[in-house]
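INFO worker-7 received task bundle
INFO bundle size: 2
INFO processing item 0
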Amino acid sequence: MPLRLYNTLTRTIEPFTPADPAHVTFYTCGLTVYDDGHIGNFRSFLAADLLRRWIQNPLCTLTNPDASLHHGPRNVLHVMNITDVGHMTDDQAADGQGQDKMAIAGQRIIEAKKSGKLPQGTNIDPADPYAIARFFTERFIEDASRLGLKVAIEAQRDPSLMPRATDNIHGMIAFISTLIERNHAYITGSPGSHAVYFDVQSFPSYGQLSGNTLDNLRGGAGGRVLESNQADKKHPADFLLWKEDPTHVMKWPSPWGQGYPGWHIECSVMSLARLIPGGLDHALAAPAGTIEIDLHSGGEDNIFPHHECERAQSCAIIGGHRFSRFWFHPRFLLVEGEKMSKSKGNFFTARDLFAQGIEPAALRLELIKTHYRTNANFSMQGLRDADRIVERWRRFRDQARTTTADSPANAAARDHARQAFTAALDSDLNTPEAIAAINQWVSATAAPSQADAELMDTFDAVLAVLDRPRLERQSAGNIVFMPGAAPDDTVVALIHDRAAAKKARDFARADAIRNDLLQRGYAIKDVAGGTVEVARTD
């Protein structure tokens, strides 16, 4: 069965059919670098990475445009942008309301300097938005690489795979100028306060991606459009392409005054510039309807207005109504069943968790183990469970590499695992079933061989957890402290007391000690060989 995916544009699961299955083009909306990437960001990025890895995996089959199947090797040109232009805190408003994000980042850096929370040796000017963007970009690429985000790893050799918005301002101006020439955009205001808006009524299928209609959008993008700006617009849903504002922290000269680009225009320019042969100049001059990319991804919060607007302005240039053949949108991440929020104390960046001793492999598995179209619920218990799964797979592969002896039972179990894993991921990237297939196979294979190790490597080329940077486990004899749990003499003594109580068959005391440890914030688990694993519960 070929790979089938849910396409947001058509609202159906359908065969993934790229224009050329041997060369797939894929664009992912990346991070706005005024802060570190949080685990909700990474949930979306890692889902895209998983999809990209599966498309490239030899077990995956794609459908050709002629409906035949493509089994051969394939390349995926995957591009993820870095938004390093200081947009506003309410970017989703059609006219860019709120505070400048880079100015806010500068204030945070000043506060971090005062409190001593800035990393040692960091020398950054909080008044320089370019320095702020570089600082957070470097940290994002470092975190993303530790989590196995392939595009971030590749971009260290080829930076064009993670283009920066500030390097593409000239292209944005050319793109906007072409939209104006073709009557898809118009200029409002007067010298000193010009703005350029996209005319949504010039694109008849505006709203198709998100399910909105122009009648429903009479109040503007989410009702957040300033009343003072509405009088200049042809339709309340018309969205900003350029805003003249000499007071903005980051600004550039343009035919419409010194200012900055709208949020949506960046991705149209950077995707076409990097993914289309001949680049942006070719895209602006090509005959209508001759250009598309294969795959576009972003979190579900990008569907409207960002991707709806991006699709409209891109199609206004290249023709058609899709811009991308497939639109891929992972759903939100919850933390312990609640929306992630700094005020609730349940807000985590990847960097926060690494600092607590959490392994990148465990975090990656925790973030990809739920189906991408289901709200994922991140929890510390789930993170510990993911860590145990990774360790189990590592032990299995390590054992398998030590012997060449195989058996018919092993071969049959491998075939079943391969088929189940493939069927799961071909069915709209069903990661829970794929992970279950691996676990069932590991359980059914008592004496794995090198052939099993090779299959595990094939699976891990997609899941990408076994070769993540590995932390040394701290231990005290047969007591192993899981990531995030530092050795504690009191805990060790209590576990020894519990072992003695169990040996004396004083199970009431053993249970009391377990409960005492829970009260202290430690959960223990007895595993094979007499080992006790200790994990923090907070």
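INFO item 0 finished
INFO processing item 1
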Amino acid sequence: MRQTTLTLTLTLAAGLLLTGGNLWAQEGEVADVADAADTPHLPPDSMEIGAKYTGWFLDGEADSLWAHFTHEQQERRSTDDIRSVMDQVLTVAGIEAEVIEQKYVMRHGMPQFWHTASFTDFEEPLMIRWVITPEGRIDGFGMNPLSQAPEIDPAPAPGAAPAEAPEPAADPSATESP
């Protein structure tokens, strides 16, 4: 198991080097969002959007994903970049065997869709993470074994106003992985 996790981590790290240092990162992290439709940063059909993007990723539909990237992400990434990551996942983890959970969390003041599933050739569940804008566009992507899930924002106090999204980093290559 440790060897397989290390292999996936190294494979994805190599992909990160080839794609500019991150997997289409977002500046910041996220808290559990109970009802995605009530989250001010999300479109009403956000659960369906996140599931659709994950399906496209797992089905190898790089062109469809790229068409839904934000303009900034389209300038930084190509369909070949997407296909490279898709191929790495297929090679190391195999195909998706079972969906374990799909949810939104808040991370760095922005919502992320987290799709957690077991895969045929990987002992640990993998998490695919999408940063989705209020317009339903893809503004970031991340992937990790479930045991390496990133920190999420603390839940807001009851009755507190929702946090505002942070300003984007001046240097896109300086952002961290979502």
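INFO item 1 finished
INFO post-check item 1: The CA atoms of residues 94 and 121 lie 5 Å apart.
INFO post-check item 1: Strands lie at 30-33, 96-107, 110-119, 122-132, 138-145.
INFO worker-7 idle
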